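Supplementary notes for students who missed Thursday's class. We covered one full example, reproduced here. Read the sequence, then the structure, then the short commentary at the end.
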Amino acid sequence: MSMPVTRWATGLGLGLALSASLALPAAHAKDFPQRSVEVVVGYPAGASLDILARLLQPKMSEVLGEQVIVENRAGAGGNIGTANVARSDPDGHRILLASNANLSINPHIYPDAGFDPFEDFEPITQLASGPVALVVNTSTNIESVQDLLDRAKANPGSITYGTPGVGSPMHLLGEMMAQEADFEWTHVPYKGSVPALTDLMGGNIDVSISTLATTTPFLDSGKLKVIALAEAEPFVQAPDSPLLADTIPGLTAPAWFAFVAPAGTPQEAIDALYEASVAALEDPAVIKGLEAGAMVPAAHGPEALTELIRADYDAFGKVIEERGIRAN
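Structure (token representation):
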């Protein structure tokens, strides 16, 4: 039985772009920061989160009056860096740049992730979001999501799809598609989106699910085609791209990125970090970088971020349990 349609991007319904009426918190106390601020990224250099962190770094350093340093602590699907921040001193000088994978998925698929997304962190703000794309090799002659579904239902398990790994948001989107549209296909996990897209170009898999940012450089070859974006509304940078929800109503799965701090971090530090984040997202150089990375700014503040984490945590948790997904 197909599970009820999950509108699990509710938190993103607050809007993707920065509102012109966004109000900053009151001026923060001068005793923060007292030294450099470390932004921990649980993935290696060159990953989407790392690129975003380094994009925000210069303007945030300027606003805070102290150097912002990006520290990569990769491993265990992002859990090493996430747990490191959870155990750090709650003074605002070490924060985590997280994604929905860190906070909404990993606690479900890792028996001992090393942190609790709700008890161990203080939300600062969502930063940006970007679409996830369904991509096919043009040689498959799959022209649309409906075409994909028809072929998958005619030959259950015959269609293969590659993702950045077991339990990734892209893998879970593939599982949600199978549940919602009542079909089966074969998951092929990779260590990142680039290897999956490379294999897709070589014809070794039929479909790849990855962020549009990662997919875009591969499209120039003419061998790959985006058949849908998992967005609730047309994406501003690709307004003519079909939406997954047009074929599977209600199913959306944008990737999002956010700052969180260790639980107990003083409000004055949270306010200062939020203010610096908003200033960075309004900087022309950052806006240009986000556009190049197929992302849009989304600084909605602590309360909205908590709602977003919870909405995704519940929705992902449901599909993880029903499909029996666990980390390898």
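Commentary. The CA atoms of residues 133 and 280 lie 27 Å apart. Residues 1-29 have pLDDT under 50 and may be disordered. If anything here is unclear, bring it to office hours.
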